[in-house]
Structures are given as structure tokens and as C-alpha cells.
Amino acid sequence: MEHLDDHERMDVWATIKDALLNDQIDQFRAEFLDLHPYDQAKIFEEVEDDVRLQIYTYLSPEEVADVMEHIDYDEIEPFFTEMDPRFAAQVFAEMSTDDAVDILNELDKNKVASFLTIMDDDSAKEIKDLLHYEEKTAGSIMTTEFVVVKAGMTIREAMLHLRKEAPDAETIYYTYVIDEDKRLVGVISLRDLIISEEDWVISDVMSERVVSVSVGEDQEEIARMMRDYDFLALPVVDFQHHLLGIITVDDIMDVMEEEASDDYSKLAAISDVDSPDDHAFTSAKKRLPWLIILLFLGSLTASLIGRFEETLDQVAILAIFIPLIAGMAGNTGTQALAVAVRGIATGEIYKQGKRKMIFREAGTGMITGVSCGVIIMLVVYFWQGNIYLGILVGLSIMATLIVATLAGSLVPLIMHRFNIDPAVASGPFITTINDIISILIYFGMATAFMQLLI
After folding, report:
1. Does the pTM exceed 0.70?
2. Which of 103, 174, 179, 404 is buried most deeply by CB count within 10 Å?
3. Which of 213, 232, 262 is the last residue of a domain?
């Protein structure tokens, strides 16, 4: 199966649609099922509703399940709404349990209850067991479709067991080993199973150094672990080390995309990233909360400027440099913020140490502050012919950049220390805070320089 570009997909779809219009079921199935499930999903998303309803009648629940697993979960609800409820329940039963749970979490609770009622008891129980875990934890993204062997088995017994259970497992690259109490005691790779002698015992071949995660572990930390260890799967255990499920690399890729999208929205001071399909009212509702907070913070900035009205009356030219100083503070603060948030998200900050990062940012603020301060001092002097005004603006820029850089790096660290997502220290939030700081520094120095400026 080759990945199709949009043009190739449309050509294939033309052939498939012709088979549908002529009720050529065998030709349709041959053409459609030859495609990769991703390409099948893209076709599902693009076709008309009535055509999609016809496709449901030509495919089995298992085949539709493969397609649904490749559709963005945020966009999937309409597809299950248009299906016959019993058919939809069968589709959920055929899906990987973790994927079914992810999709059900996006649906209306009444619909979820209805699907679970119709579903066969075994499938419904597996899904219910995962649904009660808190979102964005190991329990919510793990799958229960995995293969385990017991430590006392021989390699031959384990291989026979693996052949029997593998068709229903999500992955068999790692086989986890449990003891009589179902506690995780080891792991053995498929490679080791294949090359070992048949009469060897699993406990003699397995690796006892198993990296696992607690069922309540945050998904972002799990993604970091899988990246660091290059795992294809990671076992999930309870507090007594019983094996509950596994998390596979494809689920972690979805987590990484979700977390990146979430952090991006917070950095932009939006409660959630806007979807292209959102109405204007929906988009405004997502953006308004932060904007209202920033509006009040901005009013504080205006109030501060008002308190220095007397200083501005005596030296009106000071007003020219307010946007320059505030803008530079916002820019350097946002740069430091991006470095800090990225360091926390990737775990790099723990490798180099928080203190080292703070000193590095302080040094960066000092160098950039002095450089920009000297440049603007010379520019103002040659422009206005007033060396004291140049020194004032230069010193203000220097002090502002140092403080703004430190604020941009310290605020995320403080938030992280109190278990608050550091991404909420968003660009607009840091910019507004640094506006206030820069105004205080600028006009504070201007007041001190007043006799020299008049």
C-alpha cells in the first residue's frame, strides 16, 4: 500500500464512486480495501453523506473500525451519529480498546451509554474499565490488548501461547512476563523468543529491568519517557505492580501532537486552538477569557502612565520612547518564556539544572541589555542632541531587558513548581506584565533624571 497524494486519491475515488453508483460491490471492495486505512479515512471525510451511508452497507464493522481509527477524534462524532446504532456498537467492539475509549470520550455521554448497552458484554466491560480513568493519564491511553506469558513457561509454551493470542494483540514486539499473582516481573522481546532454545525457561531469558509507568501517570511525562528510552511500548501497572495494560508508540505520537497543540494555544492566550470549522462566536468564546484579563492588566499600564503625568508634562519627548521600551520588554520576555517552556516540556531543564538556566538567561539579558542600551543611547544622542536623554533611554532599555528576560524564565518555573501548566504563562500575559515593569523602570529613571533633562 502506497501513500496517495490528493490528486491520486481523487483518481482512485472516481473509480470507487463509479462502482458504487453501479452497485458493483465486489469491485468497490477490491478497490477500496486495497487502499491504506489512512487513505480510506480521507475519502470518508470528503464524500457526501448519502454516499458514505451506502459505503457502510458494503463494509463489515471490522473494516469500518480500521477506517475510524485513522480519523481525527475531534471530527469523528458525525460519523457515528449517522451510523445505525447497532452497527456503530459493533464498530466500537472491533476497534482497539484504547482507540474506542478515545473516541467515546469525544461523544455525548447519553450516546456512549447507548452504545455500551448494545455492545457485547466482553467488549463493553473492557471499554468501561478504561473509561473511568482520568483523562490524559496512562490509564486513559493504554490498551488492554496485549500478550503476557508466565515466568515458569518454557520458550516452546510461550511461542504456542503467542501464536494463539497475537491476532488480538496490538503489538507483540515486547512480551511481558508476570508471576502467579499477575505482577509484572520481566519483559522478553520477540527476537529473544525466536532465537532461544525451546526448552529454556522464560525466567532465565527475560530481562528483569522493566521500565513501567503508574496508571495515574500524566501522558506528557509518558511521552517524554518513550522518547528517552526509544520504546515501542510501555507497560502500565497499579500500585501493587499488577500489569494493567500497555501504551504503544502510535498512541504517544497522538499525545505529542495533542500536547504541542495545547501548549501552542496557551502560549497564544487561547483556551483551545481554533478549528477552521468553528463559528465566529465559538472562536470568540475561546479567546475572550484571556483577553479580558489582559484588558484589565493593560488598564493598569495606562494607570501607571497617568501617575507620571507631571513628568511627561515637563519633558514631553519622553512619550516618544514608551512604545520602544515596552515593545523591547515584551519581545525579550517572550523569547525567554519560549526557552523556559520548551525546556520544561522536553525535560532538558532537569538535565542542565534550573539554576544554570536562570544564570544563563540573566547573562543573556545582561549582554542584550547592554548592547541595545548602548546602541539606542547613541541613536537618541545624535537624533535629539541630548546626551542625558540618550543615557536615560539607554539605561532604561538595559534594565528593562535584564528584568524582562529574568521574568520570562522565572514565571514558568514558578508556575511549574506549583503544578500549574507553565504554558499558561502565555506570550501576551508575559508581554503585558513586562509592559508594567518597563513603564515603572522608565519613568522611575526619568524622574531621577528630571533636573538634567529640563
Report:
1. no
2. 404
3. 262
